[in-house]
User: Fold Protein-L-isoaspartate O-methyltransferase from Streptomyces umbrinus.
Amino acid sequence: MTTIDEPHVHDPDALRADMVRALRDQDAITSEPVAAAFAAVPRHRFAPDAPLDLAYDLHRTVPVKKDEHGLDISVMSAAHLQAVMLEQANIEPGMKVLEIGSGGYNAALIQELVGSDGVVTTVDIDRDIVDRARLCLDDSGYGQVKTVLADGETGVPDGTPYDRIIVTAAAWDIPPSWISGLTGNGRLVVPLTVRGTTRSIAFDRDGEGLVSHSYRLARFVPMQGEGAAKESKAVLRDGVAVQTDDVRVRLNAEALNHALDTPKMESWSGAAYDLPDELELYLTLQLSSAARLHASKDVVESGLVDASALLGVPALVSEDSIAYRIRRENEDTGGFESGVVAHGPQAESLADEYLNLLRRWAQDHRRRGAATIRFLPGPAPSPLPQDTVLKRHGIVAVSWH
Ligand SMILES: C[S@@+](CC[C@H](N)C(=O)[O-])C[C@H]1O[C@@H](n2cnc3c(N)ncnc32)[C@H](O)[C@@H]1O
Assistant:
């Protein structure tokens, strides 16, 4: 949590000025137009029930609606992430912009960026959210923003083509309407989930498909409706689960759970551990049978699973064995060294494959922004080329430079 200067806690204007300063300091805001938009829009009026310090916190979301299990299905996104995405979008005055996933606040920021000659449409699948966004927008002086109730999977054809489409829920795929709905030099900014990790990717049009301009790790509530993610998940025991979006990977919960009870084999790569975004992307695309291992705090504290699994860690799985990445402090490798924990009858061969990738990463690709991510719509080639992930509407292809 970002702490706010005590004297300001009841003064939204002062809190907003602090927020803009801090977003600049943290390089989330890097341009004057985005700074001016954040300074202009009264963020707290889009979170009328939240305490002011929460509304103006840089990194926390404000809950708006939960599902029957108590999980967030709509939040006001964290200011830091909104700033990063608006910088990625590079919105100019006069543009026509579609936001998928409403709340009101981000649409108001976009309205500030496009100015009075621009047009902003925001669409949400949930009537409560659309109604709430409408009220907040009208109440804050942004009555010109259009609100639409629909599944964003099909876009909002009425306003096409858009100069920018900005998606604010974690998307598992890129439906055709998001590409065809863009102008020829349009940009799509989307939190795309690839092998269990979500990155906000700014995509430009590239022939029939898309090519990344920038990417940043991001967390979002999941997309609902037609485009909702379809992943297979195996709960091994309370607090331990593996999941994968690779249809070729089979998860045998019973055998993998049994593997965890066998002695753990720990090996170290001698290679640096850093740049987790790029490393993770590389691993999940290169591992021959990739899944994601998640463990709860209790399980980690019991010593059964390493802390690397708390937020999910790329795992290599076979029918009855599992290997995943760990790290330890090591000044000789620049601060941290990556390693592998493996369990089960094939622990040694899985650990070898994993360690080789960790070393190859450190040797050949260890650089921020080293990946170019493409989305190629249409039927996937068979067999699927190396470094690609199969989606429903096309493939994600990653190249390294
Ligand atoms: C993180 S919230 C949006 C935050 C908002 N942009 C803001 O200003 O802070 C994500 C929203 O996406 C919406 N959503 C999820 N799936 C959707 C879909 N298929 N089409 C349109 N909206 C969707 C949810 O209802 C939720 O309100």
Summary: Confidence is low (pLDDT under 50) at residues 1-5. The domain at 6-227 is CATH 3.40.50.150 (Rossmann fold). The chain has two domains: 6-227, 233-364. The first strand starts at residue 62 and ends at 66.
